[in-house]
Amino acid sequence: MGLIQDVIATGATGLVIGGEPQPASDGATIDVLDPSTGSTIAGVSSGSTEDAIRAVDAAAAAAEGWAASTPRQRADVLQRAFEIMIERKDELAELIVLEMGKAFPEAVGEIAYAAEFFRWYSGEAVRNIGRLYDAPAGDKRIIAIHQPVGISLLVTPWNFPSAMATRKIGPAIAAGCTMVLKPASDTPLSALAIGRVMEEAGLPRGVLNVLPSRRSSEVVGAMLADPRVRKLSFTGSTEVGRILLRQAADQVINCSMELGGNSPFLVFEDADVDDAVTGAMIAKMRNGGQSCVAANRFIVHAAIADEFSAAFSAAMAGVHTGPGMEPGVELGPMINRQAQDDLHHLVDLATDAGATIEIGGAPLPRPGFFFPPTVLKGVGASDPILEHEIFGPIAPIITFETEEEAISIANDTHHGLAAYLYSGDLAKSLRVAEALESGMVGVNRGIMSDPAAPFGGVKQSGLGREGAHDGMLEFQETKYIAADW
Ligand code: SIN
Fold first, then answer.
1. How far is it between the farthest Cα atoms of the chain?
2. Nearest C-alpha to atom 5 of ligand 1 is from which residue?
3. Is 237 in the pocket of ligand 1 (CB under 6 A)?
4. Where are the beta strands (DSSP E) in 69-216?
5. What average pLDDT does range 292-319 have in this prediction?
6. If exposure means fewest CB atoms within 10 Å of the residue's CB, which of 69, 124, 144, 325 is most exposed?
7. How far is the CA of 33 from the centre of ligand 1 (A)?
8. Residue 159: CB within 6 Å of ligand 1?
């Protein structure tokens, strides 16, 4: 049996606790839907709070042994996991398409991105570098080492069901932590497949426990209330992030939070408009706009706004929409009916405030949860749509006259994850990049995600960084040793 059939067929024993596939203690299951048809493709066990605590037990039982493993052993497991993912990339990608809907070529891209986190952290695992330095008075030495933070709870979203899991599993393994992965209930299959990959790569039992559940708040709450859990790494909305931070406060749990975004995409009058449109298409349409770093507000200089809007609308209109496995498809369905309805509501919100629809604007009349590429013009700088994280293929365009105004519109949000700017003037680009209140800025680029780069936000977009060496430090505690010798 191939990987896809196997993961689907064994979904009813889809909790992986201490290396043992098993059903939920109360037999509950999640119906996993194909968003391109709305029909059920699998029933996956839905963990209970009792299962969640058993998963923490398993992580606790494996913790000492795993923390004592050598950096090289951890690196080898990660390198092998990278290789397996690349060998199986088509199957793993098809699983993403089945449960999440994105177009197959994008799903293959996600698997390559996901696998790269394992390769990167295979390298980082053997670079657990501490410090030894002189105290200012010169009378003693300061030693600082990095140790595993402990049992980690990884809560991942549906939009990149593989990459967001490996982005957390990779550094947790490299750091020597054991963990419980709680994937989004819309997309548990990819997480289960990654569990298989890790087993095949030689990860000892209990180091990674996988707990799909549709009772997310109960199971996550139960684990955060368990004093053995020392780390929460969460990717999801700011709204849910706030609740989890409050819950994590009770046990003073170390938190890395990758939360929502409201990314501005600035196009200055000296930009190459063709390049800006190419970048805009990537920044807006990667993953159908269902990304926390998706361009959410197009802020375009008035002198080139018509030229940019016309070229961008033409490119958006040319996007081939359909089921993700169909050849040539670039935009698959949205994740679920709610997402489709929310997008429709946002278009209404914008048009009620005076915006005009250039293209798209309403759900496609076909089975599944399709929403077409949509461009909105005449959006005012304080229109309500601009306060929302769109999470879909809708692009509102606003105009500006001066650099100060562009920066002020861009920063007028509680979020601060990603920002993009296009300009032919490098000095201006760097000046504006520094002024933008954002954890990441793409200069003349529509994508910047890279496992080797620190990914994360400022303001209400999150705490901490994933990727790079920073991502491993998030799974470690720094210990200071004051020694006399
Ligand atoms: C996200 O949308 O949550 C992550 C996107 C990325 O890693 O590029």
1. 76
2. 291
3. no
4. 131-134, 141-148, 151-155, 179-182, 208-210
5. 98
6. 144
7. 22
8. yes
Nearest alpha carbon to residue 233 among 38, 47, 465, 482:
465
Note the pLDDT tens digit of each residue in 134-168. 999 998 999 999 999 999 999 999 999 999 999 99
Q: Which residue has the tokens 């494996």?
A: 62
- Contact call for residues 297 and 398 (beta carbons, < 8 A): yes
Average pLDDT over residues 221-236: 98
Residues known to be catalytic: 258, 292
Q: Tell me the per-residue pLDDT of 416-438, one tens digit each, with 9 for 90 and over.
A: 999 999 999 999 999 999 999 99
Mean pLDDT of 388-416: 98
Whose C-alpha lies nearest to ligand 1, atom 2? 291
- pLDDT classification of 4: cutoffs 50, 70, 90: confident
Please list, in sequence order, all residues whose beta carbon lies within 8 angstroms of the beta carbon of residue 427, skipping any fewer than 6 positions away: none
pLDDT computed for residue 1 by the predictor = 72
* Ligand 1, atom 8, residue with closest C-alpha: 449
- The domains of the chain, with CATH numbers, are 3-259+460-483 (3.40.605.10), 263-450 (3.40.309.10)
Mean pLDDT over 335-348 rounds to: 97
Residue 15 has pLDDT above 80, yes or no: yes
Give distance in angstroms: CA of 21 to centre of ligand 1.
29
Ligand 1 proximity of 156 Cβ (cutoff 6 Å): no
Instruction: Give the span between the Cα atoms of 477 and 409, in whole angstroms.
Output: 38
Statement: residue 229 has pLDDT above 80:
yes
DSSP classification of residue 252: T
Nearest protein CA to atom 6 of ligand 1, as residue:
449
Residue 235: CB within 6 Å of ligand 1? yes
CB-ligand 1 contact for 293 (6 Å cutoff): yes
Question: Model pTM?
Answer: 0.97
Is residue 89 classed as helix, strand or coil in its secondary structure?
helix
Q: How far is the CA of 176 from the centre of ligand 1 (A)?
A: 24
